[in-house]
Amino acid sequence: MNKIPLEAGRVVRSKSGRDQGRLHVIISEIDSDFVLVANGTLRKLDRPKKKRRKHLSATEHRMDTDAWPPENHQIAKLLKALDPKEEG
What is the mean pLDDT of the chain? Predict the structure, then answer.
């Protein structure tokens, strides 16, 4: 099985915590254990959530990193398209 890397721009689903089941985009990597995630609505870029990598499940989707960093509305639009029941 080929494991999907958890790098900036990757769309991930939270496996635990208050935000369990919600989609997020990895904004940056802190170290080998932690990343910062945002979803454009509840967790915006000015207040990203610090999450352990083991609490995230990678998807095959990526945010276009040509115009990095993205804006909140771009993240929210992408996540809404991937999962219509997402808030926003």
Answer: 90
